[in-house]
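ok so I'm stuck.
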Amino acid sequence: MTTYELAQVNIGRLTAPLDAPEMKDFTNNLEPVNAVADASDGFVWRLQGDGGDATDLRIYGDEWLLVNMSVWRDAEALKAFMYQGVHRELLARRREFFERLSEAVTALWWVPAGHRPTVEEAEDRLTRLREHGPTDYAFTLRASFSPPAA
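replied:
not stuck anymore, here's the structure
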């Protein structure tokens, strides 16, 4: 019997270079937010580059687009992390750090337990969501799908 975990990707187009003074609150909080995620109930994995976070990785070949990916036990675990503490505070301030994009910036999908998605896989899922809306291939928290039948 295959069990599934929930993968998520979210992207953001920077309003300024990461080393700019106006990005200091964002960059200074990366490590504490990641530590909370790592210790959260239901957390499985997160994308990391050479620096321990994903700020050196890009998506869609765009140097201004940051990519964040993680895998969780289920949507409830992801939501519990997203809407608490420092992450919630930074989420409320996201327009200070990231431009408003007209296309979807977050996609979710089920992966077999133990699978670690790649940036290319995330790009494919996000593109599919943008082109076709929520499906069992790529969806959102508001329009979610159950894991595949075992």
